[in-house]
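batch job 7 of whatever, protein = Phytanoyl-CoA dioxygenase
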Amino acid sequence: MLTTQAQREAFRTDGAVLVENCLDPAQLARCYEAFKWNVANPGPYHFRSLDGTSLQTHIDNANPVVKDKLDALVATLPFGKVFQELWGSEHVWYFAEEVFAKEGGRSGRGPWHQDTANLPWAGRHWGNAWITFQAIPKKNSLEIVRGSHLGIQYDGASFSNADDPTDPLYGDGTFPRLPHIDKDLAADPNAWDVLSWSVTPGDVVFLHPRSLHGGAAVDAGCPTRHTLVLRFFGDDATFRALPMSNPRYARNGPLFSEEMAKLDEGQAFRSPVFRQIA
Ligand SMILES: O=C(O)CCC(=O)C(=O)O
């Protein structure tokens, strides 16, 4: 086994777990190569709405130009086996990558969000492998509200309003608006049960993407964070249509939308476009 019983239980109940030394130096180097290429060659889903604000972060998603290379890379990494264990799924498919680059020690915390507000995903078997290439102290790391993958599905964060991280993606009443977690925590550090870990290169944080999560700020002591997120799904993954009120996300979400248009509500999340890795 690549994971312990305690790690499997933590993933299922908390929605996130740290696996130390998950990637060896050669695997990590291939991931960093992919990250650097991706940042140097932004794709059509490069997200720029926070550019020029205090939250400026390079965020890009599912770059189609590099899809074949990343599909091949993922097959050389241990994530098929890790997710089989964490989920208890027989099969594992690779969805796509997302990159986050915070540089210059000035980027504030990324808005708290659930990926399932932006993408048409439901079911237990979803997972993000959060791979960071610098040593990151706990206070600058990824933060997750423990157990929130089993709780309320909130509206998304628009990621377009640096002054209000709860600014909604839809705002049409389908989902409740995001709570202002940072404000709540400033008033009472115990208001939310937040999980995070210091990481060293080779460690991977696995999180269920329905968890409320967000990247903490970088600062003078930790000025740079380069993160490659690889996203996966397994047997219990279904298509769940998104609200129609935001044209960019309507029903199918912005990624692989032609493939998503072929799926019915509640249907198993399967498409030949996603490479099976286990
Ligand atoms: O690394 C970050 O800042 C955010 C990560 C994230 O949103 C994700 O892994 O889905």
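notes: The first strand starts at residue 16 and ends at 19.
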